[in-house]
Amino acid sequence: MKPIYLEPDEEITSIIDRLSKVEGSKIAVVVPKNSTMFQSLVNLKLLARQAQKLGKEVAIISNNKVGSRLAKQVGLETYASLGTVSNTPTPTPVTKPTPSTEPVGADVLPDGTPVHRYSPEMGQLATNDEPSAEESEPEQDEQAVGKPEPSEEILPEVELKKPEVADEQIASSPAPLREEPVSSVPVGLPSIVSRGIQSHREFVFPWKSAIAAVVMVLVAAVITFLFLPKATVTLTFPAKLLSESFALLAKTDTSSSEGVISGNLLTVEKTSTKEITSTGKKDVGTKATGNISVKNCEDTNSHALSAGTKATSGGKVFVTASTVTIPAGQFSGGGTVCNSTTVSVSISASDAGETYNLSGATFALSGLASRISGTGTTSGGTTKQITVLSQDDVNKAYLDIKTQLVQDATNELKGKAGSQTVLDEAIKSAVIEQKVDKEVGAQVDKATASMTVDLYTIAFDQVAVETAAKDELTTKLEANQELIIPSDKKPTLVFKELTDDKTTLTVEVTASGFAAPNIDKSAVASQVKNKSASSAESFLKDKYQAQEVKIEIIPGWWLKRLPILSQAINIEYGFNEATPTL
Question: What percentage of the chain exceeds 70 in pLDDT?
Answer without folding.
Answer: 78
